[in-house]
User: Fold these one by one.
Assistant:
Number 1:
Amino acid sequence: MTAHPHLPSADIDEKFESLHWQELNKAHLTASDIAPVMERIRSHVSIISTQVGTSYEGRSIERFSLGDGPLALLAWTQMHGDEATATASVLDWLQILLTSAPVGLPTDWRSRVTLHIIPMLNPDGAERRTRVNGQGIDMNRDAKALQSPEGRILHQQVAELSPDIAFNLHDQNPYYTTGMSANPATIAFLAPAYHKDKHVDGPRLRAKQLIAAMNETLQYYIPDCIGRYDDTYSFRSFGDNIAGSGASTILIESGAAHNDPNRQVARKMNVIALQTALESLLTQQFEQYSLADYYRIPDNRENGLCDIKIEHIGMGDREAFQADVSVTVDRKTQCSQIGAIGDLRTLYGFTTINGKGMYLTQGKGFAVNAAITLDDNAYLNFLKDGVTYFIDNGHQLTIETRYPVQVVGEDKPNSPILPGDPAFFVIQDSAGPVAAVLDGHWMSLR
């Protein structure tokens, strides 16, 4: 993408292409993944590196600080261990700031602001790719009890640093949309409430103004793919409690984009958003935005998307009917399932198929009674014959195909396809199978 020359983020957009950490283009990040990058940043003369504590299982938790000005910004990532997008983003941002100050910043910016960044708050959860920490605690619900060492570290950092601005950086599931549209919410913002009545004091107003500024910039890059998270007060959550401490607290959720399995679009948008906020703060440009600008951002709508949606497909064993069918894929296991069946007109698919004139069936099984090697061509022929699973008690099936294969120990009962079932099925018309869905992967058979 080429930045618009009038955008405050234009220079950082250009720098991102050459200065981001290419080795962090992964679906997930652990402490060992980021260790080489952390070492390179740590060695920079302008960086102050501080070990702020250790995780429940003894892994180091580190804070990088840059600048020595009175305005304090604190950002933390991977509070949930399986939400790694912004970890790459903040390391990219530091690399860009250390290599060459972007054009939009005042020349004395380091004497006006101090950036504090904790790139991975939950390394134990990151190691297992789980939301929770090594104790099994969701630390974002630990702001009051402080039962987790990682939660106590964040609490202590807020008390010690007294940040003016706090960036709480997360990932959201890929199925959020912007309002009722079909657009994925690639980025979602929230200025969390600090009271159940959702009061807007000075710091929260500033957070909403900064979000409005970031939204305006990001709209150039990802138009209509930015949502506004629900601000229901969460008594136990860190963002809400930190907002109550007087910090202008901003939640940024990284979401999905089309054809972007590693969320690199959201990764880059985080960098541009953070830089826009910094520039806007130091130039006071955020003051031109109003509450109306914040609330103009569409709602971040949950469960508005699925991976595959098949519309108006014929179904039913006892009585034929037409329905929509959705398929969702678990990003961790890569296993898929039938999400919902029925009238799904308010649900959109990353891939949408018109099923009119066709019929969906779970397919039939093939009993493996002799040694068989299942390569791509052999599998394709089985699928064209309506076979979607193999009954292999004697372990005589050798799988050499690149496509997912369903192997069972006994034949399946002739039962209806239901939500929660594995997404292996055949779509056919009067002439036979047209396509197969194999664990959420679409495969044309004609």
Number 2:
Amino acid sequence: MRLGSLLIIFLLGLAPAGAAAQGSIQVLGAPGEESAAPVDALPAVPAPPPPCGTQTVAIARMAWPSAALLAEIHSRLLTAFYQCNVAVQEGDLAATGSSMGASGQPAVAPELWTARIADIWNAAMQGQKVRQAGLAYADPVFEGWFVPDYAAAQWPEVTTIDGLKANAAAFGDGNGRGRLISCPLDWGCALINRNLLRAYGLEQSFDVVEPANRFEMDTLIAEAVGRKQPILFYYWQPNAILAQFGFRQVALPGYDRDAFLCMGQAVCPSPTPTGFAPDPVVIALAEWVYLDTPQVAAYFGRARMPFPEMNLMLQQLGEAGQTVESVAERFIAERGEIWRPWVGLPGLEAPAAQ
């Protein structure tokens, strides 16, 4: 081969990379490794829609503490586990019920006392704008009779009607009769408690104490507990006082609708045993929540708060420096065994704060 030919071949080997642009270059992987396809050749896979959809979920935060706590708890769990865009807004029973029935907003009312707005609720249900996802609390009966835990420890049978009758003298002031601390005279429960005593055959065993107001009612209970005095008293849940002190609920007969109607009458000629009436306190959802976000609707169907848990949170809310928001966050941080079944992931801890 001539020298000139060799020089041409050498110069071609030194040609810049750009000179190869007219051809194609195959990049080979390591031995045993297949060539990678160009990135732009892969088909685009759309991200799955979030379980909460893209519409803002507005939750009504009612003025009373338990409903406000539920709103804040649900807001945090929906954001963490369902990627919801949540807006917590102020509300009240009548306005919230009317708005949900007319426009489907707010989307959630976590503690709606439907019996108090029966006409509004019934109209919204008939218009197919709202649904009842479930009960707000694990127990539908909010009222009851209670005894301190130290009394139940000394006389275990006093959590029954027969036990109260047998030990009535221990629940009094030394006159051989017990005391039932009822509610103020102008409350409907005052009349019901008197008729219940008659229905249970306890009117000869217990005197009724009807305080002037809620403050006096709580004071009478606190003073008796402070003295470790056995007492029988009426109260309702959820309530901070039932977490502040230790109490046991008296087992009453099952609710009988006809019998209970008589309990509310000033003249009930023949009262018969019955428990307190259940109160329909529901989690109300706008219809679109079921259609657009069924996973969220299922969450609310499981989200029933036990009374003892709410009682404890209401007690914590009374501590110095505590707010609805801080107590809700404490519940999520410390009470996972309660809320984990709501999200359908038992055993999963709350996501770490970002």
Number 3:
Amino acid sequence: MEAGDKTGMLESDDPAVGLRAVGALHRLAENVEAASVQLARDRGWSWEQIGDALGVSRQSVHAKYGRRG
């Protein structure tokens, strides 16, 4: 999808278009977060450091990502 297409989603008066855009943004954010958490862990970051960077508790970030292989 080109940048112009994304802008069109923001300008659309069709709620379905906007909601699809929100879903796509959520999925993108989840993917970026997961990759960044994995990179931080690979570089020796603690769960507390990662939680602080994300603005959440170490427990919540560990619960979400701690059991991944």
